[in-house]
Design a protein that fits this description.
Largest sheet: 7 strands, mixed
Strand order of the largest sheet: 15-14-13-12-11-16-17
Number of strands: 17
Radius of gyration: 29 Å
Distance between the termini: 74 Å
């Protein structure tokens, strides 16, 4: 609420005046099942005179100066904001308002009590090291968050053990992990109680000399690194008199990185509180559908044994269903949890652990009083090679997204493929090391985490997989020869070692041969394919031919409207891959929710209504290919997907990776069933 907004709101007929009055009306008379919350943020001490803002000001507001909310940013000589807290404080306070509202409503409470942070720490008696916990306490004082700090929160004559147990079991826990933290029995107890009571936890990692022992209970929580305090130099030359002010300013800002880390940890803790409130608010349907445990975080030894023992005491020995938030656990984590379930007396075939998106991807359905139904079996993509054609779209910003949304979507899609036992095939390049949003690296990281196999491929069978299943690459990336050089060869060797054995890199030479890195390097150094004889567009086309040949099905997302060479007589990469896949008779799944060429193709094929995204931005040659593509699609392209018109329409508009993968799996199951029926008829 600034002077500029107040001036704009004085006239009720302006757009701003109408907008603010509409907000007030919706807050007082919201639609059914809807809450509108207005959170006033006052910019400076300006007097407000417009009717809408005067009404809003009756609420307790967040007061910030103009610079801290970006109205008049004043940077110091180093280019940083004058106060480090300004970068996070507004987000922290607004996040606190939202989390507090949702938390209290989900608990059925009317009074909006502040979220309270339990500072779990060890005392550094007799140490000259800076007190990190004290810095945390001071920063908390600058916020509206409540706090429990044992040195000041436990009153005289209070039973301190019971008080600490009680607070650790219900307050958001901020772990200040210094060198001796993991050795202390009471800090271990605080973390255990917080986990078993599903309390939000964030760790501030402030190790200085290191931790020789560690503690398994400290894992499986979000962690923020805490930078070391600067070490004074006793031998430094005394400052000249004219530099005294500058030195004083430097000393005043000496702890800026440390305060920055504390505020980041607090902001993440508020996010975790909101995550818990939303999770509890939305999982009621899963509880009614016979999910035995709906856990706030992925199961781990600290929490699952306590839960299994309670189940055992109840005398229940049936199929146990566990739900936890994404991302899914890895196959290694799965094996440990399955063994623990077995040791607790439950058969291995009686435990299923899934996330909501996994359940959705596999077509799961919920029925009150009955076990969940999951029609798509685990490992349904074993032996299936899925080609993915994806690149940043020119439409992302116009659709309210950015490159990070694309990164996250591609990563989640890959995760579902790997968890289901599939292999991902991609034609990507290696960008400059400082360039963000490299999809090849995004896919590589997911392959490294989830690449060594399917969790429970036979729905809990005791049969073990062959020993070599963990050695096969689950992600194969193909490079065009024009994107391969001596520098790239050296970088790829490093990446191959980093991602081995889950990722395999290949180079398609100008003759269409698929070469591993050793063979490609040998050919490159021999000079068999001079760059001047092999234009970039020809090399890219050869690479795409190899990509389609190596794939069983193709998923397309996004895509720019111009060729890499920005030439009007050449096809955009995504369109060329789509054209090749359809001509090769490969099932094609067009995910148009990220705009770009994929959305234009979907609209041209009649999979969804035409929108402003479909305006003609393609070259004449691209338009001609779209005409031919439409004919091929009518002659069997749609049938090969195994999806009906409604499914294809949803696929063409959604930006949710779990829905994309659910439709791909559904189509593959339907296509397989059709193929089996035809074989039976013969």
């Amino acid at each position: 609420m600034s002077r500029q907004l107040d001036e704009a709101a004085c006239d009720k007929t302006t757009k701003w005046g109408k907008y603010l009055n509409n907000l007030l009306q919706r807050e007082n008379c919201p639609p059914s099942n809807t809450r509108f919350i207005i959170c006033p943020v006052c910019a400076g001490g300006v007097e407000l005179v417009s009717d809408p803002l005067k009404l809003m000001k009756k609420k307790q507001a967040i007061w910030r100066d103009r610079e801290s909310i970006g109205l008049d940013i004043d940077y110091d000589k180093s280019g940083c904001a004058a106060d480090v807290s300004d970068r996070y404080m507004l987000s922290l306070e607004v996040g606190h308002v939202v989390a507090r509202q949702v938390t209290n409503e989900s608990n059925g409470e009317n009074d909006l009590e502040p979220l309270k942070v339990f500072i779990s720490h060890t005392r550094q008696l007799g140490s000259d090291a800076p007190d990190v916990a004290e810095l945390v306490r001071k920063e908390l004082q600058r916020t509206r968050l409540g706090r429990f700090f044992d040195a000041e929160s436990i009153q005289t004559t209070t039973q301190w053990k019971e008080k600490i147990d009680s607070e650790a079991s219900k307050r958001a826990l901020l772990v200040v992990r210094t060198d001796h933290y993991s050795k202390r029995r009471w800090t271990q107890r605080e973390v255990r109680l917080a986990k078993q009571n599903e309390v939000p936890i964030v760790a501030l990692s402030a190790l200085s000399s290191g931790d020789q022992y560690g503690c398994f209970m400290l894992d499986n929580v979000p962690t923020i690194p805490f930078p070391a305090f600067p070490v004074g130099n006793a031998d430094a030359i005394a400052p000249q008199e004219e530099d005294a002010d500058a030195i004083a300013h430097e000393e005043e800002d000496a702890d800026v990185p440390q305060r920055d880390a504390v505020l980041r940890a607090l902001l993440r803790l508020v996010d975790e509180c909101l995550k818990k409130a939303v999770w509890e608010y939305t999982v009621e349907a899963y509880v009614r559908a016979n999910f035995d445990w709906v856990s706030l975080r992925a199961p781990e030894p600290t929490t699952i044994m306590d839960w299994l023992q309670k189940k055992k005491r109840l005398g229940e020995d049936r199929h146990l269903w566990v739900l936890h938030p994404d991302p899914p656990i890895t196959s290694e984590e799965w094996e440990i949890l399955r063994e623990m379930s077995n040791l607790a007396g439950f058969k291995k075939s009686k435990l299923t652990i899934v996330t909501p998106r996994e359940l959705d991807t596999r077509g799961g359905s919920l029925q009150i009083g009955s076990d969940p139904q999951i029609p798509v079996s685990a490992g349904s993509l074993c032996g299936v090679r899925i080609g993915i054609s994806a690149s940043m779209s020119d439409d992302l910003r116009r659709m309210g997204m950015d490159a990070m949304h694309m990164d996250s979507a591609v990563a989640e899609l890959a995760r579902h493929v790997f968890v289901q036992g599939g292999t991902l095939v991609y034609g990507g390049r290696l960008f400059d090391e400082d360039k963000p949003h490299d999809l090849m690296l995004v896919l590589g990281e997911e392959a490294k985490r989830y690449g060594n196999g399917i969790r429970d491929p036979k729905e809990g069978s005791d049969e073990t997989e062959p020993d070599d299943t963990g050695c096969r690459p689950v992600f194969e990336n193909f490079f065009a020869w024009s994107k391969y050089s001596k520098e790239i060869a050296d970088r790829l060797d490093v990446l191959q070692d980093r991602f081995y054995p889950d990722v395999k890199f290949f180079v398609a030479d100008p003759d269409g041969n698929c070469r591993d890195l050793d063979s490609a390097r040998e050919v490159l150094f021999r000079g068999d394919y001079p760059a001047e004889n092999h234009p970039n567009h020809e090399c890219l086309t050869k690479m795409r031919e190899v990509l389609i040949k190596e794939s069983d099905i193709q998923i397309v997302m996004g895509g720019r409207f111009h060729h890499d060479d920005k030439s009007e007589d050449k096809l955009p990469g995504i369109l060329e891959e789509v054209w090749m896949a359809v001509k090769a008779g490969k099932p094609l799944y067009i995910a148009g929710g990220f705009g770009g060429v994929s959305r234009v193709i979907a609209e041209r094929l009649g999979l969804t209504d035409k929108t402003w995204l479909s305006r003609e931005r393609l070259s004449k040659k691209a338009s001609e290919v779209l005409d031919e593509l439409e004919e091929y699609w009518k002659k069997g392209g749609q049938e090969r997907t195994g999806l009906n018109d409604e499914d294809l329409g949803l696929l063409a508009t959604t930006s949710r990776p779990s829905i994309i993968m659910r439709l791909v799996l559904k189509g593959q199951e339907a296509a397989k069933m059709t193929s089996d029926n035809k074989a039976t008829e013969k």
